[in-house]
Amino acid sequence: MKFSNILTQWYLLHKRDLPWRNTTNPYFIWLSEIILQQTRVDQGMAYYFKFIETFPTVQDLANSSEEEVLNLWQGLGYYSRARNLHFSAKYIVDECKGEFPNTYSEIIKLKGVGDYTASAIASICFNESTAVVDGNVYRVLARYFAIETPINSTKGIKEFKLLAQELIDSKNAAMHNQAIMEFGARMCKPQNPDCSICPLNESCVSLQKKKVKLLPIKEKKIKIKKRHLNYVALISSDKKTILKKRVGKGIWQNLYEFKLIESESKIEKADLLSDLFFTDVLNGKQIELTKFNNDEIVHKLSHQHLFCTFWVVELDGEMSNGVHWNSIDDYPVPILIHNFVEELKRSTIFSIFE
Q1: What secondary structure, in 3-state letters, does 263-317 show?
Q2: Which residues form the HhH-GPD domain (predicted)?
Q3: Which pLDDT band holds residue 350 (cuts at 50, 70, 90)?
Q4: pLDDT tens for residues 278-327?
Q5: Which residues are marked as active site?
Q6: Do the Cβ atoms of 266 and 309 come closer than 8 Å?
Protein backbone atom coordinates (compact mmCIF):
# COMPACT_ATOMS: atom_id res chain seq x y z
CA MET A 1 0.00 0.00 0.00
CA LYS A 2 2.93 2.33 0.68
CA PHE A 3 3.93 2.02 -2.99
CA SER A 4 0.47 3.09 -4.14
CA ASN A 5 0.24 5.92 -1.59
CA ILE A 6 3.56 7.42 -2.70
CA LEU A 7 2.54 7.29 -6.35
CA THR A 8 -0.84 8.84 -5.61
CA GLN A 9 0.68 11.69 -3.58
CA TRP A 10 3.15 12.38 -6.39
CA TYR A 11 0.36 12.26 -8.97
CA LEU A 12 -1.81 14.81 -7.16
CA LEU A 13 1.12 17.24 -7.18
CA HIS A 14 2.50 16.66 -10.68
CA LYS A 15 -0.24 15.34 -12.97
CA ARG A 16 -0.82 17.05 -16.30
CA ASP A 17 -4.15 18.78 -16.89
CA LEU A 18 -5.39 16.57 -19.74
CA PRO A 19 -8.99 16.86 -21.00
CA TRP A 20 -9.86 13.19 -20.51
CA ARG A 21 -8.89 13.50 -16.85
CA ASN A 22 -11.77 15.88 -16.26
CA THR A 23 -14.43 13.32 -17.09
CA THR A 24 -15.53 9.81 -16.22
CA ASN A 25 -17.67 9.51 -19.35
CA PRO A 26 -16.67 6.05 -20.66
CA TYR A 27 -17.17 7.09 -24.28
CA PHE A 28 -14.68 9.96 -23.92
CA ILE A 29 -12.21 7.80 -21.97
CA TRP A 30 -12.50 5.08 -24.62
CA LEU A 31 -11.82 7.60 -27.40
CA SER A 32 -8.76 8.95 -25.62
CA GLU A 33 -7.35 5.49 -24.92
CA ILE A 34 -7.77 4.28 -28.51
CA ILE A 35 -6.22 7.48 -29.91
CA LEU A 36 -3.27 7.27 -27.50
CA GLN A 37 -2.55 3.57 -28.12
CA GLN A 38 0.11 4.38 -30.72
CA THR A 39 0.21 8.17 -30.48
CA ARG A 40 1.96 10.76 -28.32
CA VAL A 41 -0.25 12.88 -26.07
CA ASP A 42 0.69 16.15 -27.78
CA GLN A 43 -0.26 14.76 -31.19
CA GLY A 44 -3.37 12.90 -30.02
CA MET A 45 -4.88 15.88 -28.19
CA ALA A 46 -6.05 17.62 -31.38
CA TYR A 47 -7.62 14.41 -32.67
CA TYR A 48 -9.42 13.84 -29.38
CA PHE A 49 -11.02 17.28 -29.59
CA LYS A 50 -11.93 16.75 -33.27
CA PHE A 51 -13.64 13.46 -32.49
CA ILE A 52 -15.69 14.64 -29.52
CA GLU A 53 -16.72 17.75 -31.48
CA THR A 54 -17.73 15.79 -34.58
CA PHE A 55 -19.12 12.76 -32.71
CA PRO A 56 -20.15 14.01 -29.22
CA THR A 57 -21.86 10.70 -28.36
CA VAL A 58 -21.33 7.06 -29.18
CA GLN A 59 -24.58 7.22 -31.15
CA ASP A 60 -23.14 9.96 -33.37
CA LEU A 61 -20.06 7.84 -34.03
CA ALA A 62 -22.16 4.76 -34.80
CA ASN A 63 -24.36 6.71 -37.22
CA SER A 64 -21.39 8.00 -39.22
CA SER A 65 -19.85 6.28 -42.23
CA GLU A 66 -16.52 4.49 -42.04
CA GLU A 67 -15.08 6.94 -44.58
CA GLU A 68 -16.01 9.88 -42.33
CA VAL A 69 -14.22 8.24 -39.42
CA LEU A 70 -11.13 7.37 -41.49
CA ASN A 71 -10.99 10.89 -42.90
CA LEU A 72 -11.04 12.39 -39.40
CA TRP A 73 -8.38 9.87 -38.31
CA GLN A 74 -6.07 10.77 -41.20
CA GLY A 75 -2.51 11.30 -40.01
CA LEU A 76 -2.72 9.17 -36.86
CA GLY A 77 -1.70 5.93 -38.57
CA TYR A 78 -2.60 2.39 -37.49
CA TYR A 79 -5.97 2.85 -39.18
CA SER A 80 -7.34 -0.43 -37.84
CA ARG A 81 -7.89 1.52 -34.61
CA ALA A 82 -10.36 3.80 -36.38
CA ARG A 83 -12.16 0.93 -38.10
CA ASN A 84 -12.47 -0.96 -34.80
CA LEU A 85 -13.67 2.19 -33.05
CA HIS A 86 -16.45 2.61 -35.60
CA PHE A 87 -17.37 -1.09 -35.50
CA SER A 88 -17.55 -1.09 -31.69
CA ALA A 89 -19.66 2.08 -31.62
CA LYS A 90 -22.22 0.29 -33.78
CA TYR A 91 -22.03 -2.73 -31.47
CA ILE A 92 -22.69 -0.54 -28.40
CA VAL A 93 -25.69 1.11 -30.04
CA ASP A 94 -27.14 -2.05 -31.60
CA GLU A 95 -26.29 -4.73 -29.05
CA CYS A 96 -25.97 -2.75 -25.81
CA LYS A 97 -28.89 -0.41 -26.48
CA GLY A 98 -26.57 2.58 -26.52
CA GLU A 99 -25.27 1.96 -23.00
CA PHE A 100 -21.49 1.72 -22.71
CA PRO A 101 -20.41 -1.56 -21.04
CA ASN A 102 -19.52 -0.95 -17.39
CA THR A 103 -17.38 -3.94 -16.41
CA TYR A 104 -13.95 -5.15 -17.53
CA SER A 105 -15.39 -8.47 -18.75
CA GLU A 106 -17.87 -6.66 -21.02
CA ILE A 107 -15.60 -3.82 -22.15
CA ILE A 108 -12.90 -6.23 -23.36
CA LYS A 109 -15.43 -7.73 -25.78
CA LEU A 110 -15.31 -4.53 -27.83
CA LYS A 111 -13.33 -4.93 -31.03
CA GLY A 112 -9.89 -3.33 -30.76
CA VAL A 113 -9.97 -3.29 -26.95
CA GLY A 114 -7.35 -5.34 -25.11
CA ASP A 115 -6.48 -5.88 -21.47
CA TYR A 116 -4.90 -2.46 -20.97
CA THR A 117 -7.72 -0.42 -22.51
CA ALA A 118 -10.43 -2.46 -20.80
CA SER A 119 -8.66 -2.05 -17.45
CA ALA A 120 -8.25 1.69 -17.96
CA ILE A 121 -11.92 2.27 -18.79
CA ALA A 122 -13.22 -0.08 -16.09
CA SER A 123 -11.08 1.50 -13.37
CA ILE A 124 -11.27 5.18 -14.38
CA CYS A 125 -14.99 5.23 -15.16
CA PHE A 126 -16.34 2.59 -12.80
CA ASN A 127 -13.51 2.25 -10.23
CA GLU A 128 -13.24 -1.48 -10.87
CA SER A 129 -10.08 -2.85 -9.27
CA THR A 130 -8.30 -4.04 -12.40
CA ALA A 131 -4.71 -2.97 -12.97
CA VAL A 132 -3.50 -1.25 -16.12
CA VAL A 133 -0.24 -2.39 -17.67
CA ASP A 134 1.07 -0.21 -20.49
CA GLY A 135 4.60 0.72 -21.52
CA ASN A 136 4.91 3.19 -18.66
CA VAL A 137 3.75 0.67 -16.07
CA TYR A 138 6.11 -2.01 -17.41
CA ARG A 139 9.00 0.42 -17.03
CA VAL A 140 8.11 1.48 -13.47
CA LEU A 141 7.64 -2.07 -12.23
CA ALA A 142 10.65 -3.51 -14.06
CA ARG A 143 12.93 -0.85 -12.58
CA TYR A 144 11.46 -0.68 -9.09
CA PHE A 145 11.61 -4.45 -8.58
CA ALA A 146 14.57 -5.05 -10.94
CA ILE A 147 12.63 -7.59 -13.00
CA GLU A 148 14.61 -8.93 -15.95
CA THR A 149 11.83 -10.94 -17.59
CA PRO A 150 11.29 -9.49 -21.10
CA ILE A 151 8.17 -7.36 -21.03
CA ASN A 152 7.10 -8.49 -24.52
CA SER A 153 7.38 -12.21 -23.74
CA THR A 154 4.40 -14.40 -22.84
CA LYS A 155 5.88 -15.00 -19.40
CA GLY A 156 6.57 -11.30 -18.89
CA ILE A 157 3.07 -10.19 -19.85
CA LYS A 158 1.57 -12.54 -17.25
CA GLU A 159 4.15 -11.76 -14.58
CA PHE A 160 3.77 -7.98 -14.80
CA LYS A 161 -0.02 -8.14 -14.90
CA LEU A 162 -0.12 -10.24 -11.74
CA LEU A 163 2.30 -7.92 -9.98
CA ALA A 164 0.38 -4.82 -11.03
CA GLN A 165 -2.83 -6.40 -9.75
CA GLU A 166 -1.22 -7.15 -6.37
CA LEU A 167 -0.09 -3.54 -5.99
CA ILE A 168 -3.33 -1.77 -6.94
CA ASP A 169 -5.24 0.15 -4.29
CA SER A 170 -8.59 -1.63 -4.63
CA LYS A 171 -10.46 1.20 -2.92
CA ASN A 172 -9.03 3.83 -5.25
CA ALA A 173 -8.30 1.96 -8.45
CA ALA A 174 -8.92 4.91 -10.78
CA MET A 175 -6.42 7.15 -9.01
CA HIS A 176 -3.82 4.39 -8.62
CA ASN A 177 -3.87 3.44 -12.30
CA GLN A 178 -3.62 7.01 -13.53
CA ALA A 179 -0.85 7.71 -11.02
CA ILE A 180 1.41 4.85 -12.05
CA MET A 181 0.96 5.62 -15.77
CA GLU A 182 1.72 9.30 -15.25
CA PHE A 183 4.68 8.44 -13.04
CA GLY A 184 6.16 6.33 -15.82
CA ALA A 185 5.53 9.02 -18.42
CA ARG A 186 7.00 11.93 -16.44
CA MET A 187 9.27 10.65 -13.68
CA CYS A 188 10.47 7.14 -14.57
CA LYS A 189 11.08 8.17 -18.20
CA PRO A 190 12.58 5.84 -20.82
CA GLN A 191 15.74 7.92 -21.17
CA ASN A 192 17.69 9.76 -18.46
CA PRO A 193 15.21 9.67 -15.56
CA ASP A 194 16.21 11.94 -12.68
CA CYS A 195 16.40 9.30 -9.94
CA SER A 196 17.75 11.84 -7.45
CA ILE A 197 14.28 13.42 -7.07
CA CYS A 198 12.24 10.23 -7.42
CA PRO A 199 10.01 9.63 -4.37
CA LEU A 200 10.66 5.88 -4.72
CA ASN A 201 14.45 6.11 -4.94
CA GLU A 202 15.14 4.75 -1.47
CA SER A 203 13.42 1.45 -2.23
CA CYS A 204 14.05 1.13 -5.98
CA VAL A 205 15.99 -2.12 -6.49
CA SER A 206 17.37 -1.31 -9.93
CA LEU A 207 18.71 2.03 -8.64
CA GLN A 208 20.52 0.24 -5.84
CA LYS A 209 21.93 -2.28 -8.32
CA LYS A 210 22.71 0.43 -10.89
CA LYS A 211 20.50 -1.22 -13.49
CA VAL A 212 18.06 1.60 -14.24
CA LYS A 213 19.38 2.10 -17.78
CA LEU A 214 19.21 -1.65 -18.47
CA LEU A 215 15.52 -2.07 -17.65
CA PRO A 216 12.97 -2.94 -18.83
CA ILE A 217 14.19 -5.74 -21.11
CA LYS A 218 12.57 -6.49 -24.45
CA GLU A 219 13.02 -9.53 -26.63
CA LYS A 220 14.71 -8.92 -29.96
CA LYS A 221 12.48 -7.18 -32.49
CA ILE A 222 11.25 -8.95 -35.57
CA LYS A 223 12.97 -8.30 -38.88
CA ILE A 224 11.84 -5.13 -40.62
CA LYS A 225 10.52 -5.67 -44.15
CA LYS A 226 11.50 -3.12 -46.82
CA ARG A 227 9.07 -2.27 -49.61
CA HIS A 228 9.38 0.07 -52.59
CA LEU A 229 6.11 1.76 -53.54
CA ASN A 230 5.70 3.76 -56.74
CA TYR A 231 2.54 5.85 -56.81
CA VAL A 232 1.31 7.02 -60.21
CA ALA A 233 -0.79 10.18 -59.89
CA LEU A 234 -2.70 10.62 -63.13
CA ILE A 235 -3.75 14.09 -64.26
CA SER A 236 -6.21 14.19 -67.15
CA SER A 237 -6.92 17.26 -69.26
CA ASP A 238 -10.18 17.76 -67.32
CA LYS A 239 -8.24 17.69 -64.00
CA LYS A 240 -9.25 14.21 -62.86
CA THR A 241 -7.28 11.30 -61.49
CA ILE A 242 -7.65 7.65 -60.45
CA LEU A 243 -8.14 6.81 -56.78
CA LYS A 244 -8.55 3.20 -55.73
CA LYS A 245 -9.78 1.87 -52.39
CA ARG A 246 -7.43 -0.60 -50.70
CA VAL A 247 -9.19 -3.85 -49.82
CA GLY A 248 -8.21 -6.96 -47.89
CA LYS A 249 -5.93 -7.17 -44.89
CA GLY A 250 -2.72 -5.20 -44.56
CA ILE A 251 -1.73 -1.59 -44.10
CA TRP A 252 -4.19 1.21 -44.92
CA GLN A 253 -7.19 -1.08 -45.33
CA ASN A 254 -10.18 0.81 -46.84
CA LEU A 255 -8.11 3.95 -47.47
CA TYR A 256 -7.74 5.38 -50.96
CA GLU A 257 -4.56 5.65 -53.00
CA PHE A 258 -3.29 6.40 -56.50
CA LYS A 259 -2.28 3.64 -58.88
CA LEU A 260 0.37 1.63 -57.04
CA ILE A 261 3.26 -0.18 -58.69
CA GLU A 262 5.38 -2.06 -56.14
CA SER A 263 8.95 -3.03 -57.00
CA GLU A 264 11.71 -5.00 -55.29
CA SER A 265 14.08 -2.04 -55.38
CA LYS A 266 14.19 1.57 -56.46
CA ILE A 267 13.25 1.92 -60.14
CA GLU A 268 13.64 4.62 -62.75
CA LYS A 269 11.42 5.96 -65.52
CA ALA A 270 12.20 3.24 -68.09
CA ASP A 271 11.41 0.47 -65.60
CA LEU A 272 8.12 2.11 -64.63
CA LEU A 273 7.02 2.53 -68.27
CA SER A 274 7.40 -1.22 -68.80
CA ASP A 275 4.62 -1.94 -66.28
CA LEU A 276 1.32 -3.27 -67.64
CA PHE A 277 -0.44 -0.08 -66.52
CA PHE A 278 1.50 1.85 -69.12
CA THR A 279 1.75 -0.83 -71.81
CA ASP A 280 -1.91 -1.93 -71.60
CA VAL A 281 -4.06 0.71 -69.90
CA LEU A 282 -2.31 3.83 -71.20
CA ASN A 283 -0.97 2.30 -74.40
CA GLY A 284 -1.48 4.64 -77.35
CA LYS A 285 -2.44 7.61 -75.17
CA GLN A 286 -0.28 10.69 -75.19
CA ILE A 287 1.28 11.09 -71.75
CA GLU A 288 4.07 12.94 -70.01
CA LEU A 289 5.69 11.20 -67.03
CA THR A 290 7.46 13.18 -64.31
CA LYS A 291 9.06 12.03 -61.07
CA PHE A 292 7.79 14.32 -58.31
CA ASN A 293 10.92 15.31 -56.35
CA ASN A 294 14.03 13.21 -56.75
CA ASP A 295 14.29 11.39 -53.42
CA GLU A 296 12.29 8.46 -52.12
CA ILE A 297 10.10 9.23 -49.12
CA VAL A 298 10.85 6.82 -46.27
CA HIS A 299 7.75 5.98 -44.25
CA LYS A 300 8.52 3.82 -41.20
CA LEU A 301 5.90 1.51 -39.72
CA SER A 302 6.35 -0.94 -36.86
CA HIS A 303 7.08 -3.97 -39.05
CA GLN A 304 8.06 -2.45 -42.36
CA HIS A 305 9.80 0.49 -43.96
CA LEU A 306 8.19 1.92 -47.06
CA PHE A 307 10.30 3.67 -49.69
CA CYS A 308 7.81 5.71 -51.68
CA THR A 309 8.21 7.55 -54.97
CA PHE A 310 5.49 9.66 -56.57
CA TRP A 311 5.21 9.89 -60.33
CA VAL A 312 2.92 12.39 -62.05
CA VAL A 313 1.40 11.36 -65.39
CA GLU A 314 -0.21 14.10 -67.46
CA LEU A 315 -2.76 12.58 -69.82
CA ASP A 316 -3.80 14.36 -73.01
CA GLY A 317 -7.45 13.37 -72.76
CA GLU A 318 -10.48 13.45 -70.48
CA MET A 319 -11.63 10.83 -67.94
CA SER A 320 -15.33 10.12 -67.62
CA ASN A 321 -15.14 8.18 -64.36
CA GLY A 322 -12.21 9.76 -62.55
CA VAL A 323 -12.04 11.75 -59.32
CA HIS A 324 -11.60 15.49 -59.67
CA TRP A 325 -8.43 16.69 -57.99
CA ASN A 326 -10.38 19.30 -56.02
CA SER A 327 -12.41 16.44 -54.45
CA ILE A 328 -9.46 14.39 -53.18
CA ASP A 329 -9.76 15.85 -49.68
CA ASP A 330 -13.15 14.12 -49.40
CA TYR A 331 -11.44 10.71 -49.47
CA PRO A 332 -9.54 9.15 -46.54
CA VAL A 333 -5.97 8.54 -47.71
CA PRO A 334 -2.69 7.51 -46.02
CA ILE A 335 -0.82 10.49 -44.59
CA LEU A 336 2.03 10.21 -47.10
CA ILE A 337 -0.47 10.59 -49.97
CA HIS A 338 -2.13 13.51 -48.17
CA ASN A 339 1.27 15.19 -47.83
CA PHE A 340 2.01 14.61 -51.51
CA VAL A 341 -1.30 16.23 -52.51
CA GLU A 342 -0.54 19.21 -50.28
CA GLU A 343 2.87 19.59 -51.94
CA LEU A 344 1.24 19.35 -55.33
CA LYS A 345 -1.13 22.17 -54.38
CA ARG A 346 1.88 24.40 -53.71
CA SER A 347 3.64 23.33 -56.90
CA THR A 348 4.20 25.92 -59.61
CA ILE A 349 4.51 23.19 -62.24
CA PHE A 350 1.02 21.71 -61.98
CA SER A 351 -2.03 24.03 -61.85
CA ILE A 352 -4.74 21.45 -61.26
CA PHE A 353 -6.32 22.96 -58.15
CA GLU A 354 -7.36 26.25 -59.69
Answers
A1: ECCCCCHHHHHCCHHHHHHCCCCCEEEEEEEEEEEEEECCCEEEEEEEEEEEECC
A2: 35-186
A3: confident
A4: 888 787 788 888 888 877 899 888 889 999 999 999 988 888 888 999 99
A5: 33
A6: yes
* Last residue in a domain, options 193, 214, 235: 214
Residues 73, 13 within the same domain: yes
Output the CA angle 182-24-177, nearest 5 degrees.
30
Q: How many domains does the chain have?
A: 2
Contact 199, 2 (CB under 8 A): no
Same domain, 248 and 339: yes
What mean pLDDT do residues 187-202 have? Answer: 96
Domain span holding position 294: 225-346
Instruction: Report cis status (omega within 30 of 0) of the bond before 216.
Output: yes
Q: Identify whether residues 15 and 163 lie together within a single domain.
A: yes
Claim to verify: residue 235 and residue 304 sit in the same structural domain: yes
Torsion (CA) 143, 144, 150, 155 in degrees, nearest 10: -170
d(CA 75, CA 323): 22
Q: Helices 26-35 & 115-126, crossing angle to 10 degrees?
A: 150
* Residue where one domain finishes, among candidates 182, 214, 246: 214
User: Nearest Cα to 4, choosing from 200, 294, 275?
Assistant: 200
For residue 176, give the DSSP letter: H
Mean pLDDT of the residues in the chain: 92
Other residues' Cβ atoms within 10 Å of the Cβ of residue 142: 25
* CATH code at position 329: 3.90.79.10
Alpha-carbon distance of 129 to 103, in angstroms, equals 10
pLDDT digits (tens, 9 = 90+) for 144-192: 999 999 999 999 999 999 999 999 999 999 999 999 999 999 999 999 9
Domain shared by 185 and 235, yes or no: no
Give DSSP secondary structure letters for 185-244: HHTS-SSS--GGG-TTTTT-HHHHTT-GGG-S--PPPPPPEEEEEEEEEEE-TTSEE--E
